[in-house]
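Priority: medium. Attachment 1 of 2:
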């Protein structure tokens, strides 16, 4: 086993760090109430909505009714943003299942998400939609 991380490991760490920063920013903006109202069922509905959007953004039907990749590029929501949202909704669902969703949140802890630590994906992180 290698003693130093591989590029794959580094890529996973970077994506998770970016996701953490995005999740903290969104929690700071939204708070826990919007999720707490409907709990895990509400998260499942949001996940379903995101999956439907992703399918619509990436695929269409040809004249024969076959599913084919879309030729056009989405204008109002990026595919990457949708995948990031799916990941965060899955994290929220796990937090609910583990009983952690209502734990205290420290929005003033800037050490949690320093902008310089976000790496090369930082420019891809969007504001909440």
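Attachment 2 of 2:
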């Amino acid at each position: 086993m290698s003693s130093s991380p591989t590029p794959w490991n580094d890529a996973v760490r970077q994506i998770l760090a970016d996701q953490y920063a995005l999740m903290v920013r969104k929690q700071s903006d939204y708070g826990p109430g919007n999720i707490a109202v409907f709990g895990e069922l509400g998260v499942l509905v949001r996940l379903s909505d995101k999956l439907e959007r992703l399918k619509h953004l990436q695929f269409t039907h040809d004249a024969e009714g076959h599913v084919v990749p879309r030729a056009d590029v989405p204008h109002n929501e990026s595919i990457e943003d949708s995948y990031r949202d799916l990941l965060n909704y899955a994290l929220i669902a796990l937090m609910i299942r583990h009983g952690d969703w209502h734990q205290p949140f420290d929005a003033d802890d800037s050490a949690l998400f320093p902008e310089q630590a976000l790496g090369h994906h930082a420019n891809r992180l969007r504001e909440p939609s």
